[in-house]
Write a structure and sequence with these properties.
Layout (H helix, E strand, L loop, with lengths): L1 H8 L13 H8 L4 H5 L14 H14 L3 H8 L3 H13 L2 H15 L7 E10 L20 E9 L4 E9 L8 H8 L8 E3 L7 H9 L4 E3 L22 H5 L6 H4 L4 H11 L11 H21 L7
Parallel strand pairs: 1-4, 4-5
Antiparallel strand pairs: 1-2, 2-3
Helix pairs in contact: 2-4, 4-13, 7-13
């Protein structure tokens, strides 16, 4: 009872007063989210009681994300009704609270040098729909992944694995079409003479030229293998005849390119530690919420390690 009273007031409980909960839950319950009230300010008095603290509700939505517990369990622990969580979550989505809070964490990470912007890596991760059928926003069947789903496109700092920019799309969106939009969102945090790392799916002259001219950096993107149709011919490179032109602006150093796999490890943590894709929810709106909550939880864990408790 004492536990619920403190939580409902938005107070911070000492670790020794918390019941037996997973460490990642205790970590979240220690934090304060004062920014949430500013991102979704209360409108003028319209009657009735004030309601629960928005930061507290946000905190328990994070708890649900990192544990994949049911709303019944979260309701029993917090004392906040299921309807309140659903209604407030909808308000957060409409006001883009999740996106804005994530951007706030990115700025804090830049100040703490979690994001240096020297080596960055980008990739996407496909997440199947909960129903295994077409859902709102999933578009058509992805033959390569053999299912319906959504994609999370991410740009991270490859040295610290801290996410910098996210884009969520249907499961059919081509990775190469989202590279420049991702880099544009993160441009202010990227250093000149740095490296942008990606796999062969991003082997596109326009992307490499953009990295070189706009970011003044090098692209750590390997070139696709030569065409089989060109094998044995004099100009066997086919459309890669101008190999030197295509190689300009790229780096082929293994010591640099090895950092590219950090983005795959980042996706792995989101899926295995923060249960991204294992929620019993449908549609791209729910996936967007879950993707941002998983990324926010990931970021909070890193910032907690350097002593940050209030956001």
């Amino acid at each position: 009872m004492l536990f619920q009273q403190h939580i409902l007031k938005g107070d911070q409980l000492p670790m020794k007063n918390l019941p037996r909960l997973p460490r990642k839950v205790k970590l979240l319950l220690e934090l304060q989210f004062t920014l949430i009230e500013k991102l979704l300010p209360r409108k003028g008095f319209i009657g009735g009681r004030i309601g629960y603290n928005k930061g507290t509700i946000f905190k328990w939505l994070l708890v649900k994300k990192v544990t994949n517990w049911s709303y019944r369990t979260i309701t029993e622990l917090s004392g906040i009704s299921h309807q309140t969580f659903v209604r407030r979550n909808q308000h957060f989505l409409e006001a883009q609270v999740y996106q804005k809070f994530f951007q706030h964490l990115v700025k804090r990470a830049v100040n703490l040098e979690f994001i240096r912007g020297i080596k960055v890596a980008l990739d996407s991760s496909f997440v199947p729909t909960y129903s295994s059928k077409r859902e709102i926003g999933s578009e058509g069947w992805n033959g390569f992944k053999d299912g319906f789903g959504f994609k999370l496109h991410a740009l991270i700092d490859a040295e610290t694995r801290f996410p910098i920019a996210l884009i969520i799309t249907n499961g059919l969106a081509a990775d190469c079409t989202l590279a420049i939009p991702l880099l544009t969102k993160a441009k202010r945090y990227l250093k000149k003479k740095g490296y942008v790392l990606a796999d062969k799916g991003y082997d596109d002259t326009d992307i490499v030229n953009w990295i070189v001219k706009i970011l003044q950096s090098k692209a750590g993107i390997p070139m696709r293998k030569k065409s089989k149709l060109a094998k044995g011919k004099k100009n066997r490179y086919g459309n890669l005849l101008n190999w030197r032109l295509k190689a300009a602006g790229r780096t082929f150093k293994k010591s640099i390119y090895k950092f590219r796999t950090e983005v795959e490890r980042f996706f792995g943590q989101l899926k295995h530690t923060y249960f991204l894709g294992k929620e019993f929810q449908r549609g791209i709106e729910a996936f967007t919420k879950n993707a941002y909550l998983a990324c926010i939880s990931f970021c909070l864990t890193k910032l907690y390690g350097v002593g940050m408790r209030s956001f």
